[in-house]
Amino acid sequence: MKSAAGSFRSLVRPTFAVVLAIVPLATAPLGAQTVQQVGSTTDRCRGGELVTFQGKLGKVTVRPGESKMADLPALTKELHWYCAGSRERVANGREFNRLRIHRDKDGRIDWTFFHVKAAAPSEPGAPGTALPNVAVGRLRVGDTKDACDRSHLVRFQGKHGAVQVKAGQEVLVELPNETRELKWNCGDSNERCANPTAFDWVGCERASNGAIHWVFYRSFARATPRSGNYVHNVRGDLRVGVNLTPSNTTDASSLVGQGTSLGGALKSALDQAWESNRARISAELRQGIAGAKIQVLALQVAGRGSAELRVANRTTDIALKYVVHDNQATVKLILTDPAPDPRLDLRFDLELVLTIPRTQLLAKWNVLRGEVSAKHVTIRGANAISKLAVGLFKSRVRAMEVGVGQRSFDLTDDVRKVIEAALAPVRSRIPADLAHLGAAVDASGTLTLCVSRAAAERCTLPPVAIRPPARAVLGRSTDKCSDATVWIYDAEKERHVAARRGGSPIVVEVDNPRFGWYCGGDAAPRTSNEEWASGPAGTHAVRVSRPGGREIVWEFLDWRPAR
Q1: By CB distance 3.0 to 4.6 Å, which of 39, 232, 330, 454 could disulfide with 298?
Q2: Which of left, alpha, beta for 37 (phi over 0: left; psi -120 to 50: alpha)?
Q3: Alpha carbon of 317 to those of 228, 421, 441: distances in Å?
Q4: Nearest in space to 350 (alpha carbons), one of 378, 327, 331
């Protein structure tokens, strides 16, 4: 296979793994559904041959005389299928994600297409409520074709081992993280495929002659250690309450006299830990970025002045996300041909996630380390030639996000020490049977720890008047969509969210100042209507408004508070 980038294809070493998920055909219920027939057509396949295609949960095989109903991986207007080893295509004017296929013994095939609309997933509640479980679906976000001789295996690494795809086979593979690039092998040749929109599932369909059809999917919603409905730019306040009886809740300070001021304690602890570890973190990052074809010319890890703390209530835990913005690196991509080696300037965030179980035993309380990852990566060419190269290499350079995220920055003990200091004066004054510790976050971003007799008991303390500051607005622009709903992927919630005509504005975290959005779709985006919008440099979020008619108003937001 020769990619569009030609000799550039071996530029970056593999820096990520994929997760294999080859599962049997089944139709999983998605809750309330409406099913609409949207079309039908006929085709032919020789009577004795098998018809196969990729369904939502695996390969579907239909023999002569059989009828089957199958869900597809995502909404689409076309389906590639095989008559024995011959690759064929069937299409419909309207999108479908379910089909019924009936085969006569004489070779005739009847296709009937359906559009299944699932109930829209509920929005996360306001800060202070648990994030609900969201059913996961997939959206088709692109495809591409490659070549590999039929005598060679297509190989790439899966979560449960190496994935091998022979000519005439099909697989559907889940990736452990979103990416824009997948590295694979055709025999002994190192290859790559890429897509402008991030994907976390990939379908690999091989024809009998070895030709490959890659199909990229993005989960409608994901649940990872870092996803959630976060409150941004919080002070990091911590307080402890004690529930002496089911109807008597008091602030811990009343049990210990003067008490200890805990304003900003969590943010302060993480700031100090970050500063004391910056040299080590810089060295770890350099190792994560550098490779045989990448030379790190400069690297600057930002300090506490570029850091913010975010907190979120989730179903089973409280998440603390410490985000350091404005990290910078300059790298040189070493090419194998006489062309000048491009230099790229990278700016990225580093996110460290820690979690505290919502309920646990006081004697065995714990803070759990989550994951570290590089996010919001922006890439610019350092000179005219390099600016031209960005278009070719952007998906490859983004693979460094994973290499950076695999480095180890463990600041868990620093948070543990702060919480232990808050609990220490309480432990000696509370009754011995108060064995449970509960955690909650309110709309101010204040973390409250509640000591009680039972896990179901809560501490009702006076609300905190402090509110996190509003973000600075960097600029505005408008777009148009004739449908009532537009969809944007929220990089922090890790799911698509809807902005509806006449509804309240929503704030969406974006993973890059240039981001994709979809015009239309009821319970999920209409993927055939993907558009793009761009904000100024420094855009981390966008406030989306649908005041009426076709108009969309974008307000581009910095991570910093407004002055």
Answers
A1: 330
A2: beta
A3: 11, 21, 10
A4: 327
Strands 541-545 and 551-561, bridge-based pairing: antiparallel
Computed over every residue of the chain, the mean pLDDT equals 80
C-alpha to C-alpha distance for 477 and 486, rounded to whole angstroms? 15
* Contact status, residue 498 vs residue 120, Cβ threshold 8 Å: yes
Place of tokens 């913005």: 325
- Share in percent of the chain as helix, strand, coil (round to 5): 15, 50, 35
- Burial (CB count within 10 angstroms: exposed 0-12, middle 13-18, buried 19+), residue 105: exposed
Quickly state the pLDDT bin for 292 (edges 50, 70, 90).
Answer: low
For 162-219, the pLDDT digits (tens) are 888 998 888 888 887 777 888 899 999 988 888 878 888 888 888 888 999 898 988 8
The residue behind tokens 């057509």 is 41
Q: Residue 249 pairs with which residues in a beta bridge? A: 243
User: What length does the chain have?
Assistant: 563
Is residue 476 helix, strand or coil?
strand
Q: In what order do the strands lie in the sheet with 359-361?
A: 248-251, 238-245, 447-452, 436-441, 359-361
Look at the block and give the residue holding tokens 């005598």.
151
CB burial readout 43-57, b (16+ within 10 A) else e:
bebeeebebbbbbbb
Q: What are phi and psi of 479, to 5 degrees?
A: -140, 180
Question: Residue 525: left (phi > 0), alpha (psi -120 to 50), or beta?
Answer: beta
Contact yes or no for 394/344 (Cβ under 8 A): no
Of 373, 403, 400, 407, give the one whose Cα is nearest residue 284: 407
Please give, one letter per residue, the 3-state secondary structure of 328-367: EEEEEECCCCCCCCCEEEEEEEEEEEEEEECEEEHHHCCC
Stretch 220-225: mean pLDDT, rounded? 81
* DSSP class of 501: T
CB 449 within 8 A of CB 239: yes
For residues 536 and 491, give the distance between their C-alpha atoms in angstroms, rounded to a whole number.
18
Question: DSSP state, 153?
Answer: P
CB of 335 closer than 8 Å to CB of 11: yes
- The C-alpha angle with vertex 326 and arms to 322 and 330, in degrees rounded to 5, equals 130
Q: In terms of pTM, does the model score above 0.85?
A: no
Is 243 in contact with 459 (CB distance < 8 Å)? Answer: yes
Alpha-carbon distances, residue 273 vs 267, 268, 281, 309, 415 (angstroms): 10, 9, 11, 13, 9
